[in-house]
Write a structure and sequence with these properties.
With 219 residues, the chain is α/β, with parallel strands linked by helices. It has one domain: Vaccinia Virus protein VP39 (Rossmann fold), CATH 3.40.50.150. Helix content is 27%, strand content 29%. It has a seven-stranded mixed β-sheet. A two-stranded antiparallel sheet has the order 1-2. The longest helix is centred in the first third of the chain and has 13 residues, at 3-15.
Length: 219
Amino acid sequence: MFEREREELVERLSRWGYLTKPEIVKAFKKVPRHEFVPPNVRDYSYADQPLPIGHGQTISAPSMIAIMMESLDLAPMQRVLEIGAGSGYNAALIAEVVGKEGEIVTIERIAELAEFAEENLKRTGYGWVKVTVGDGTCGYKKGAPWDRILVTACAPELPKPLVEQLKVGGKLGAPVGQHYMFQTWVVAEKRGEKELKIQERGGCSFVPLIGKCGWKEEG
């Protein structure tokens, strides 16, 4: 079930130019997105649109996820930190590329979503990915330095702890800007301890990154 829809999605994303790298294409073909969304929206799993996953959070549209994945130049054996586990789908895609020889830690501030992500990852064969609850804006220092860091919610600026925990030569991808508007997908390559090469990869729309080094809790 859903295999044909998944193949058609990959074909569309490839035709539109979102998917170009063979390793990312392979990951999109392999990971069952429908296993990472709530039952009430499962029929829309392979539509190119964001979907609600509860607690005011969403799983991004596949085209946006493709941009995120391809911009980081993921490779086997890398150590990757994800900020915002969500449903676990992004982590599963990353796992397909870096493999068990690498390491993936994904941080989620909402405990119920962390549990949801962990269950999804275990059920689909990615139980070796570490899911932890915490303030992702502060990173995961005991695992630093990281080859790649992926931020899946919008920050007002690149969080300083994440830049510090990024390996020299590593890449950090994050949406930066205001809540729900004027956001840009940014890729920062760490050229030296105090040198970053910043590239802007186009507009985007994400929920806010809440935490000590992000936006403050609303309400």
